[in-house]
Write a sequence for this structure.
């Protein structure tokens, strides 16, 4: 009988680099290792807070590409010493926070080919950078550039129809444009603009890696239907940009093998490297969504609502995004930046623990007696709020329990309201992320959506999704394809035997409260 194969999924998220290793032996498939490196703790020399470099302007959010590279070095060393039989690694793929961009100079191509395995990876990477920092998805400083790009291509709707989203501040086109305008010399000295995903894949394979349609669709530059760069947007972003962009390959493409650097440094085999993707496309398969009809809610640094779509239905109101899915279909996604961040702020404001927070939720009535909060502690992506500030309607800041319920209800109603554009009939929700451990929060979500909520033990859903993509691509490569349903059913199982079900009376309450919430949002945004 053949030896079991290992597949590695890496996830470079905002705050950490994680790895999930799965073992496949015929019909037997299981996760054999999960491990994470928290950037702030393990690599404090870079000075990040929650993975982002401190800035005086709250609209600016950048991080360090060298920190991500060093984390990859540390992770590979960790895997090499984990006791795994490295010779059995069949393929590696990866996931990374979406939208972030890394700027490399013309020497990068040659330098990638001769990374010095006797020295830390960062020593070889530092001279490749044409910009020391990488803007990340939390950045909201590019409103002017968004307007300029939208105007140049004939308006937001045209841009959304082609690229899957209207112009968004954190999307790569606006970020590249701002770099070109603020630092023309730095832009001129840039030979290749990578996403975080393709940058890290390049370090693994020792040459410039292409990117996949899932991450490519987070740039406002790729034609969502043809998976090619959409020239009007590319031209609108910055001069000469087309030549600086990676190529786009299908999500199952093998882009190279683990380079000599890793073989010599840690004894890794020349395993296949499958193109990396964004964390949301990877999470889609990591939470088992390979067909239309269900959605996932990920309660993490950002809260995201996403689901697979058979067709690229674009959001007319412009809050949501259409990305490519690893299955070759599409996915709809709406992102909220005040996710765990807002829940933590409320918890901390009243000196609570998470248990106190859960108790406060349990002690307050669904609907909170009609009281509403808009929890915009930081700039918000959905709806777009440039200047943060918490708004309270009928609720006193002194009412600790009332504020706990208010933040959870507001977030749930915002998720329901701003995901309607996907036109997915939702009867089942897959909940993941840290806050999915709190059943009280999931009950509010079930009641607001009127849907069953299943919890999944996938704090590492993106890394797991990347490992599953590696498995899927490797089998395809050997003309032995495995159906996506089959792949996810072995790995993605709910934590509980029964779901959290909606209470019809509470669902009724939230139906009318969502109208009130909508009016509050509109008033706060001065559009109603
Ligand atoms: C999605 C988004 C975030 C990041 C988080 O559009 O901005 O979910 O991908 O890593």
């Amino acid at each position: 009988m053949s030896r079991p194969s290992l597949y590695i999924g890496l996830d470079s998220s905002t705050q950490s680099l994680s790895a999930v290793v799965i073992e496949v032996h015929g019909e037997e498939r299981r996760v054999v290792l999960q491990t994470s490196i928290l950037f702030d703790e393990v690599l404090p020399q870079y000075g990040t807070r929650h993975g982002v470099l401190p800035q005086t302007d709250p609209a600016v959010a950048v991080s360090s590409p060298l920190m991500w590279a060093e984390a990859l070095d540390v992770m590979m060393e960790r895997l090499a010493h984990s006791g795994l039989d490295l010779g059995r690694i069949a393929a590696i793929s990866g996931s990374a926070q979406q939208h972030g961009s890394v700027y490399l100079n013309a020497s990068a191509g040659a330098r990638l080919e001769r990374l010095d395995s006797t020295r830390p990876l960062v020593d070889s990477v530092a001279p490749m950078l044409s910009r020391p920092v990488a803007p990340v998805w939390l950045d909201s400083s590019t409103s002017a550039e968004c307007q300029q790009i939208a105007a140049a291509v004939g308006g937001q709707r045209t841009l959304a129809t082609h690229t899957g989203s209207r112009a968004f501040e954190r999307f790569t086109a606006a970020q590249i444009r701002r770099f070109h305008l603020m630092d023309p010399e730095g832009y001129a000295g840039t030979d290749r603009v990578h996403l975080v995903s393709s940058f890290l894949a390049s370090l693994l394979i020792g040459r410039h890696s292409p990117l996949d349609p899932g991450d490519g669709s987070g740039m406002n530059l790729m034609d969502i239907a043809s998976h090619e760069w959409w020239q009007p947007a590319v031209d609108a972003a910055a001069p000469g940009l087309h030549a600086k962009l990676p190529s786009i390959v299908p999500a199952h493409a093998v882009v190279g093998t683990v380079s000599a650097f890793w073989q010599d440094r840690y004894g890794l085999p020349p395993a296949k490297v499958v193109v990396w993707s964004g964390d949301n496309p990877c999470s889609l398969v990591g939470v088992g969504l390979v067909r239309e009809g269900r959605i996932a809610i990920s309660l993490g640094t950002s809260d995201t609502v996403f689901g697979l779509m058979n067709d690229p239905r674009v959001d007319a109101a412009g809050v949501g995004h259409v990305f490519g899915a690893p299955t070759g279909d599409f996915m709809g996604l709406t992102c909220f930046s005040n996710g765990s961040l807002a829940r933590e702020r409320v918890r901390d404001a009243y000196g609570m623990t998470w248990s106190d927070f859960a108790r406060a939720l349990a002690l307050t009535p669904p609907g909170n007696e009609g009281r509403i909060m808009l929890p915009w502690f930081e700039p918000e992506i959905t709806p777009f709020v440039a200047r943060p500030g918490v708004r309270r309607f009928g609720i006193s800041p002194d009412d600790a329990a009332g504020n706990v319920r208010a933040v959870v209800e507001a977030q749930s109603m915002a998720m329901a309201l701003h995901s309607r554009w996907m036109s997915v009939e939702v009867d089942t929700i897959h909940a993941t992320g840290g806050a999915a451990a709190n059943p009280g929060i999931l009950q509010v979500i079930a009641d607001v959506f009127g849907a069953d909520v299943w919890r999944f033990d996938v704090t590492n859903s993106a890394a797991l999704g990347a490992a599953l993509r590696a498995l899927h691509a490797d089998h395809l490569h050997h003309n032995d394809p495995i159906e996506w349903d089959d792949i996810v059913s072995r790995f993605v199982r709910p934590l509980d035997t029964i779901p959290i079900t909606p209470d019809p009376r509470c669902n009724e309450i939230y139906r009318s409260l969502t109208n009130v919430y909508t009016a509050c949002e509109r008033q706060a945004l001065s559009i109603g």
Notes: The chain has a mean pLDDT of 95.
